[in-house]
Amino acid sequence: MSDKNIVILGSGMAGLGAAHHFHQQGLATRAFDKNPYPGGHTATFIYDSGFIFDDGPHISFTKDPRLQDLFAENVGGKFERLQAYVNNYYHGAWVKHPAQANLHNLPADLKARCILDFIEASRTDVVEKPANYLEWLISVFGETFATHFPAVYGKKYHTVGPEKMSTVWIGPRLYRPSMEEVIRGALVEETPDVHYVSDFRYPSEGGFISYIKPFMEQTDLRLDHTVVAIDPATRTIRFANGQTAPYDHLVSSIPLPELVPMIAGAPEKVRAAAAQLACTTCVTVNIGLARDDFTPATWTYIYDEDIVFTRLSFPHKMSPGTCPPGCGSIQAECYYSPKYRPIDASPDSLIQPVIDDLVKIGLIRQDEEILHADARLIPYANIIFDLDRETALPLVHGWLDEIGITYVGRFGEWGYHWTDEAFKSGERGAKQIIERLAAENR
Ligand SMILES: Cc1cc2nc3c(=O)[nH]c(=O)nc-3n(C[C@H](O)[C@H](O)[C@H](O)COP(=O)(O)OP(=O)(O)OC[C@H]3O[C@@H](n4cnc5c(N)ncnc54)[C@H](O)[C@@H]3O)c2cc1C
Q1: Atom of ligand 1 lying closest to residue 35 CA
Q2: Which fold has domain 6-39+212-277+385-441?
Q3: What tens digit of pLDDT does each residue of 141-178 get?
Q4: CB of 273 closer than 6 A to ligand 1?
């Protein structure tokens, strides 16, 4: 088995999950990444200003003890254990999360309609097979709350309306409170914490990437290698820098809409299906401030359509090691998508609108001292679970199975994977190949 040429495409969580599993089984691998830095979405950028920002806000909330131990070992036990305090900004009101269990700060009429519709929705069972996400939202939360909160936030975050989305991704992400929680939350300010991410971990030093650095030693990793063509007949990969690499077995975490057109002989209907798969593009705007007392929240959801960002995270809350002493930081996420909301601005041009909107919502002052500001584009951010995905994905996956390319991770499986799930997806991919190798040897 060990003379087999195993190649991994991508050095994010999924690629490294695969590399780690092969390594544990005594199998050598080579990995290639297009970026000049490793880690994919879990990369961390350390700036001369003294601020550290991840490539999008990243925390580890895995409940899997094996992964908790593995990540803890990778940072020599130096990590922060934190309780999340999450809030929402809704047209001038600050509302603890989840909003439906914390209606207290909202206008009386809106509160009353949210409660009355929730009572109405509770009289019938939640619709079992909803035609789309909107139908599910109304059935679970009642019309007023559904259409004023998750439907509006969802459209900002996913860039497409809930009437065009499926429900396969929801899992524990949306919390349905009890009647008592809704009523108490409308009457009093102090309520119990019920967010699905209650506690989490973050490396004390070096940003999120510290969790995965040791995995990078477990593979022969080549950066600056953009795959441009794959020939499954000759089992050869070609890179933009002119180099080629042969493979016996291939694990790919490259986004499917980019992977499929690279593969020689991809049938037209598979190419068309891959082109249907939609994903958001995120611009993160990173702001460093001279103070750290501007919010009680770990992160904040923003509902207003006229505010450029959808979510705000505060890296100084993850670890003080991400900022110079006494300073604080904000990471704003602004969402677009080629299919539904194409971006028509350069990332840098969003810096000032983000600062202006931070002033508008009262988080920072007009004359605030800003010590750091930069913007980064994340071309592939979150999978959009539109109705096209449900028909297109099986076609793409079925064909990749036929030609023996193992797809892993958020953009290979095309799912909502968090970091731990992406890592495990990579491990699963490696296991599949090891089983194939064992079968070949029998
Ligand atoms: C804004 C944001 C916030 C998030 N927050 C959290 C969080 O708090 N907690 C959490 O657990 N998860 C979070 N996630 C999810 C997490 O980032 C992903 O689940 C995980 O990092 C995906 O890993 P991956 O390896 O599947 O994909 P990626 O990290 O994208 O890895 C794919 C790799 O393939 C490489 N590649 C692509 N094309 C080519 C090519 N042509 N040639 C060579 N290489 C190529 C890329 O450079 C990349 O390194 C967040 C995601 C986003 C977008």
Answers
A1: 47
A2: FAD/NAD(P)-binding domain (3.50.50)
A3: 999 999 999 999 999 999 999 999 999 888 777 788 89
A4: no
